[in-house]
């Protein structure tokens, strides 16, 4: 049994914690509160996982927590409006803890760092330059570039696993598809969405994120570069809502695009909507991620979409008591 440190206990951190514990590892979780997030419906809990209260951007405190760990899983993220201000300290602390402890740094990343592509019909691959021009994309790219530079200098061992928008049980952030759709969809109500509801989009299943983070932590072939989480073929928002409604027994459900004018006005009062302006391109046109390179080297595969939808609807039914 080995010791893994998971930094952050949002949906991805919680899923990774549960998986590592199920695999028999000792797991400690770092959050500011030191308290586990509310258990997901149907979950058996963290099974004796130890939760630590500390500021992960404090390098000395994080290094002490990571002492003896084989891997540090960086699953934390500041609130979206605070990314530019707080990501640099958090990423520097993760790197310092990895250097001090000798643990492999496994960073959970996203696709913001690539920025808008000249040809949106071309799937995103890991060899694309990190060319984001917006502040959130730049700060996420800088976090990985810092870790990669330290890896290449021989000071740490690091790997980044990048996911597209999360989908699946436990994803409750209002910016994600099921969180926006399911409360109304279960009652047969129309679903209002950002962007073009018919543009193909990649949705990464949350349990597959956890499986990929756990797999690369123990395989040195993965270290030193970024990989895309195995993700099912892209599907439009309209198609995904259709799958969810069919499974819930409420089909057909209308899908309505929110007016850009209305979104602009709402952004005056909503910090989240203001921040999402930078990444609106991901929903206004095709946004497709290619995970073939990961699948050519490792064992994790994307969960079949049918299983994803079944599990997601069941989770939301239990959560909402529907």
Quick overview:
This protein has two domains: 3-164 and 203-228, NAD(P)-binding Rossmann-like Domain (Rossmann fold), CATH 3.40.50.720; 171-202 and 233-288 and 304-320, UDP-galactose 4-epimerase, domain 1 (Alpha-Beta Complex), CATH 3.90.25. It is 40% helix and 14% strand.
Detailed description of the structure:
There is one protein chain. The longest helix is centred in the first third of the chain and has 19 residues, at 83-101. Helix 7 packs across helix 12 (305-320). With 322 residues, this protein is an alpha/beta fold. Helix 4 (135-152) links the parallel strand 5 and strand 6 (158-162). The model is unreliable at 39-45 (pLDDT under 50). A seven-stranded parallel beta sheet has the order 3-2-1-4-5-6-10, with helices on both faces. Strands 7-9 form a two-stranded parallel sheet. It contains twelve helices and eleven strands. It has two domains: 3-164 and 203-228, NAD(P)-binding Rossmann-like Domain (Rossmann fold, 3-Layer(aba) Sandwich); 171-202 and 233-288 and 304-320, Alpha-Beta Complex (UDP-galactose 4-epimerase, domain 1). The chain has helices at residues 11-22, 59-66, 83-101, 135-152, 177-185, 206-217, 237-248, 260-266, 271-276, 281-284, 292-297, 305-320; strands spanning 3-7, 26-31, 50-53, 71-74, 104-109, 158-162, 165-167, 191-193, 203-205, 226-228, 255-257.
């Amino acid at each position: 049994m080995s010791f893994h440190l998971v930094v952050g206990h949002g949906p991805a951190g919680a899923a990774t914690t549960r998986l590592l514990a199920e695999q028999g590892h000792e797991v400690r979780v770092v959050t500011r509160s030191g308290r586990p997030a509310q258990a997901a419906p149907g979950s058996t809990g963290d099974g004796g996982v130890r939760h630590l209260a500390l500021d992960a951007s404090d390098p000395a405190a994080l290094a002490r927590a990571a002492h003896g760990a084989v891997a540090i899983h960086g699953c934390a993220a500041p609130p979206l409006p605070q990314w530019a201000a707080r990501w640099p300290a958090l990423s520097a602390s993760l790197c310092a803890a990895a250097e001090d402890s000798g643990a492999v740094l496994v960073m959970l990343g996203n696709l913001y760092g690539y920025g808008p592509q000249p040809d949106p019909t071309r799937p995103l691959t890991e060899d694309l330059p990190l060319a984001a021009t917006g502040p959130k994309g730049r700060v996420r790219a800088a976090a990985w570039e810092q870790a990669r530079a330290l890896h290449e200098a021989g000071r740490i061992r690091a790997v980044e696993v990048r996911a597209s928008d999360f989908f699946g049980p436990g994803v409750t952030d209002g910016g994600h598809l099921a969180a926006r759709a399911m409360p109304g969809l279960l009652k047969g109500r129309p679903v209002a969405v950002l962007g073009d509801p018919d543009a193909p989009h990649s949705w990464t299943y949350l349990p597959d994120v956890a499986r990929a983070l756990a797999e690369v932590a123990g395989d040195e072939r993965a270290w030193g570069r970024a990989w895309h989480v195995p993700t099912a073929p892209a599907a439009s928002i309209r198609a995904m809502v259709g799958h969810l409604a069919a499974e819930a027994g409420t089909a057909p459900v209308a899908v309505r695009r929110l007016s850009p004018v209305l979104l602009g006005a709402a952004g005056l009062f909503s910090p989240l909507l203001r921040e999402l302006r930078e990444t609106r391109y991901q929903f206004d046109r095709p946004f497709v991620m290619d995970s073939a390179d990961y699948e050519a080297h490792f064992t994790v595969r994307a969960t079949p979409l049918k299983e994803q939808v079944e599990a997601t609807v069941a989770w939301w039914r239990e959560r909402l008591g529907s």
